[in-house]
Amino acid sequence: MEPQLGLHELLHVFSFLEARDLLRAAQVDKVWNEVSRTKELWRQLCLRRWSSYKAPQMTLGTQTWKEYYLCRSELEFRMESGRPEKDFICKAIAGHDGGIDELAYISTNECRFDGQEKSVVCTVSSDSTVRAWDVQEGTEVWSSPLQPAALVNLAAYPQLQLVVTVDKRGLIKTWKAENGREWASFSLPTSSSALQACDHPETPFLLVASAEGVMYALTVPQLQLLSWTSVFPSSPTSLLCSPDGQWVFASTQDSDLGPKVFYTQSLLCVVEDEPPVSTTLPVLLTSRACWAPDETARLMVMHRNSDNMRLAITTYELGTKQSRKGVDAVVQQIASFLLPDTMMPPHLMKGHGSQVVLLVSGLELVLFTIQGLQLAAFQDHQKPITSMWVDQSRVLTASFDLSLRVYMWNKENKFPVLKSCYHLLGGSHRWASGFTHVESDSVSIVGVEARSVGTSILRSYCFNVQHGSDDCVD
């Protein structure tokens, strides 16, 4: 008779197995079944697969680690397959009397499957209201009173359960995300050109740029003024806060004024008679920029090349150094390349990982490394792309062709490979003119569908997770 492995020996062997192998081992006999369900085995599988700090937070709730692993694997399988009715449920959500200008998720981006999961988005509209919507139920959660002017932008702080809006006159307000109660307000002297939520490690804050080129740093939720800085006099200014909240990129489009980067600590803790710590980048005619999400301070800027005025993308690393006067900003160029002559000027730009930049030009989606190697190009849409959303697992595009396109990343190669998967279709072209925005969380996708009568509705696509199916495990 062959010797039998003891429980400790079996557990050690099973620790080298993947999920599918563990499920097969559980079918051998009672002992193997018992060992294969060990909590620590499934916990380690979950941590190996989803513990990245950029991935949605794991929340067990009432589930076991095995149940969580199976449910989340099923969710990813359904997101990649995208079969209508079987993998997701689509809902049309109407309520605004005007067009929707912006939307954002105000629910935290966590993955849980114990019945407590909920996706909530917030929208602002030309009908002068801000509203919250339950994505799964397809219902309105709350609506603000009618505001003095049309709302044009919003920023969300899911962890604080806070929403910030600004109207076309420059009136900023904060709202409690759970019930829509107004918290505080702040009036700009002119209209706003940018609104940026910044999750600074010490304290979250709000950045606002006016149409006159002044940048304001405000506390949240009280909207108390921390500092103001004239960045580009009399020029509408765009703002981008770095992933770690330590840097702010400010630019004015197609200008001879070079873009600037600010060290946010100097905006929050102002020293009297001293300007904030900043530096001007050595490029002109900036058109777009984005941060590399996996790096704390890697910035990619699209601009015109000074020699022949072709479009180029230059990548910088930002840092600080101590000097006699205090802290100085340090900028180091690490890569630069020219875009192909045949490419139309891109109107959307996003970063992925630390080495990849995604560009949208007309109806084409193109991927480059920061050194200029073209990784892929997709022409899945029939009309121009209007919006792009990127995270660690997916890329979503919205288009005037009344569809959303879903792409999935495969990171097993040296550079991430993007796979085109399927379309999510909107309503009828008789009533709608196309999608204008797209956002997503861990379990749903929401697009803004513009109607031909000048209003907008939301279309939500919620992915089904009914049970942790073994067939959905890699």
UniProtKB/TrEMBL annotation:
InterPro entries named in the record: F-box-like_dom_sf, F-box_dom, F-box_SCF_Substrate_Recog, WD40/YVTN_repeat-like_dom_sf, WD40_repeat_dom_sf, WD40_rpt
UniProt entry keywords in alphabetical sequence: Ubl conjugation pathway
Domain of life: Eukaryota
Domain F-box stretches: 1-45
Pathways per UniProt: Protein modification; protein ubiquitination
Keyword Ribonucleoprotein applies: no
Keyword DNA-binding in record: no
SUPFAM superfamilies to which the protein is assigned, alphabetical: F-box domain, WD40 repeat-like
Protein name (record): F-box/WD repeat-containing protein 12-like isoform X2
